[in-house]
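Action item from last week, closing it out:
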Amino acid sequence: MAKSAAAIARDAALTPVVAPETPWTPEDSAELYRVESWGDSFFMINEQGHAAVKPFGDDRLAIDFVKLIQELERRAISSPVLIRFQDVLQSRVRMLNEAFGAAIEEANYGNRYNGVYPIKVNQLHEVVEEVLEAGRKYGMGLECGSKGELIACLPHLTEEGMLLVCNGVKDRSMLSLILSAQRLGLNVVPVMEKYSEFESLLALADLQGVSPVLGVRVRLATRGSGRWSESGGARSKFGLSIPELVRLVAELERRGKPDALALLHFHIGSQIIDIQVLKRALKEMTQIYASLHQRGVKVRYIDIGGGLGVSYGAGHARGEAGVNYGLQEYANAVVYAIKEVCDVQEVPTPIIVSESGRAITAHHSVLLVPVLEGHRRGGPDHVALPAEPHAAVEALAKILDNVRNPDREPEELIEAYHDIEEIRIEARTLFSLGYLELGQLATVEELYWSIARDLLGRLRPAEIDPTPAEVLELEEKLTDRYLCDFSVFQSILDHWAIDQSFPIIPIDRLDEKPDRRALLVDLTCDSDGKVSHYISAMEDKTFLPVHSLEGDRPYYLGFFLMGAYQDIMGDTHNLFGRVAEVHVYADADEPDNFWIERIIPGAAIHEMLAQVQYFPNDLNRRMSDIVKRKIDAGIIRPTLGMEILGQYLACFNDTTYCDARPAPVAERAG
């Protein structure tokens, strides 16, 4: 009998409506990985679901990472590989100088901005040259912090008046070289980090019969915030106190050389996260500057140090991954804070110097790392039981059946988790005492992980508030391990050393919803060789959302914001060396919008061995002696011995990283 319209309407109202899952889009991935918060207009996810870079910081042109890695594979360039986007360096230099230019014009500031690049952030020659080339029209200078860096910087002072600020501890040799550079007419300003350094400079200047030009780092009362807060304040590592500054000025006045003091410097941290802290420091330093001017000491520069922040990602639990200002706000804050004090005190405004290294270099380098394999947590859907299962096996099998009953309530599922934990502990105890056979223990483990996986699959959608500790434990236990072809200690040392977070995203399949939770582990035999926290929109930052690996299909992860410090501070744990490096330029007339200017191979094994005093000739001799003894003893034939020796020697030129290509399959005999 046909249903009435009323009956049809009633049945429809009683039938639960399950909305189809909205298809995953590249925009969803961009939100998940917080690309906008750290990409700073340079990185995006395109319509194909691929990560891409916009080298000019606008929409003129984009380079697809998938196409780039395909080109590298075509050229047989091994991974991991560091990609340097030289146009990003140029864009960052331009943006920094234009921001200060705009602020100076708007404020009607009576002087100029003179940026210097602190090479400690990335001393690689090509990086320094690229920065200087981009900054030539802005009068960009350099900053060094050691004798080695001074020697690297001096030959690059090719433009008239180009500023070199010399920070760090300086011995007699370094101070003498600085004075000689000043005699050449170079604009080199040594910053006095302690009073004894000032005394040494004066003594050397007297010996050479010259009048030095110098700067002073001042210990301000204002302290920075976040991880690098101890760079400023009264207890900072370097700098003169106010009484020491007054004493220094008095000595210059006694000598009739008050104008020798050309620069005042402060530094409140490598990553200033709060703009208000910077404003306080600026006003404090400018008051010192104004007081000296009123005293007749005509200081020309205020060097505000480094610290222009880079957002490594919003929402990080430690609260230090983001900054609360943008580039233009930073420039405005500096210019207006200095001008305000100078106007009130009726003194001329100084040349503004900043040492913004992180903000210039961080975005230009991306590390591309292949995933070698994934260790997936969770047992099989079906566990084969032994012919005579142990009581522990039987108990777990029964629990597995109960957990898969759709009528079980969350409270019963949590109780089941407690039960399997207890049974697993008992089984391990029985095995250690010799009362449980190895095969039975293996079945216990398979059942345990199968139940754990099913429990989490049931409990997570229940969205219990607050989240039970058992659910959090299950999530942690069931997070996959993705083995990646890199070394944390070589490529992201700051992650291991100071807990710095770096954005990490897959470069492909970003139009697919990630279906796995992964902890990324590296090649080193160290428990610390892992990435322990991530940038994402997830509340839990201890895992990275990733995709299931698909057979031999490559799966690459991009590690972003690698350009500041990471290139320089790498450690050679397990003798993993520098990765291969590729320098890329954007060009709309080239295929796929880019061309490769330079390829630098990764460190070979023999190079890393030489660093720790193992040399090929000596190793060859020792290995040859071993092979000869085995041949003489009749253990192997001479032909095989020579093949083994040749195989050993051929490895000297290998990269220190894994060859991610699939192993060759031996041909079957016909």
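Closing note: Residues 109-356 form a domain with the TIM Barrel fold (CATH 3.20.20.10).
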